[in-house]
Amino acid sequence: MNIIKKYSNFVSRHPFLIVLGVVLFTIFMLAQFGNMRFENQDNSDMLPSGNAIID
Questions:
Q1: Does this model's pTM top 0.90?
Q2: How far apart are the C-alpha atoms of 41 and 34, rounded to whole Å?
């Protein structure tokens, strides 16, 4: 319970610091989305070949 009280006191005394942290985290995550690659998944590569039921 003491940890929650300390956290609530910190948040109530420094609200702009919390907002700044959230904004910086959001900007960082948006920058990382630019590095993300999307690739198509071909399910036929996952199946074994040479099987009469699957072919």
A1: no
A2: 20
Q: Are 11 and 18 contacting, i.e. CB atoms less than 8 angstroms apart?
A: yes
**Structure-block tokens of residue 26:** 């959001």
**Pair of tokens at residue 42:** 């071909």
The CA angle 15-16-19, to the nearest 5 degrees, is 90
Overall average pLDDT of the 2-17 stretch: 93
Decide: residue 15, CB within 10 A, 0-12 exposed, 13-18 middle, 19+ buried. Answer: exposed
Q: Are 20 and 28 in contact (CB under 8 A)?
A: no
- Each residue of 10-39: pLDDT tens digit? 999 999 999 999 999 999 999 998 888 887
Chain centroid, CA 42 distance in Å:
25
